[in-house]
């Protein structure tokens, strides 16, 4: 199983979401910043590394919000996706790897074409079942 971590970054009632680049796997679909854990990394260590690589910021990683498993037809092994709260502690967010990034109010998230593994979380955030 492949373990993937994703950041839930909230500011002024909005959540940071990112669109995958044209030409990438799952091109132009939306997701939360993050990525695959490297060997011997904890979820918090991996997410802090990914946020520095993708957005150019240092961060404080908080508690786990949700864990999901998903099998994509395009991938040979299932993924375990761990969503963690994160706070930016240094630097200014810059888009280093995405087509675009946006701050969105939770109720507007279903308007975007999110990756299937994210959809349960999107529903919970959009309906207010889960608050950040």
Number of individual domains: 1
Q: Give the biggest sheet.
A: 4 strands, mixed
Shape: globular
Number of helices: 2
CATH topology: Nucleoside Triphosphate Pyrophosphohydrolase
Q: What value does the average pLDDT take?
A: 96
User: What is the level-2 CATH architecture name?
Assistant: Alpha-Beta Complex
CATH superfamily: Nucleoside Triphosphate Pyrophosphohydrolase
N-to-C series of helices and strands = EEEEEHEEEH
Number of strands: 8
Which structural class is indicated by helix and strand composition? alpha+beta
Unreliable segments of 5+ consecutive residues: none
Separation of termini? 28 Å
Helical proportion? 10-25%
Estimate what percentage of residues fall within beta strands: 35-45%
Q: Can you list the strand order of the major beta sheet? A: 5-1-7-6
Top-tier CATH class: Alpha Beta
Evaluate the radius of gyration: 14 Å
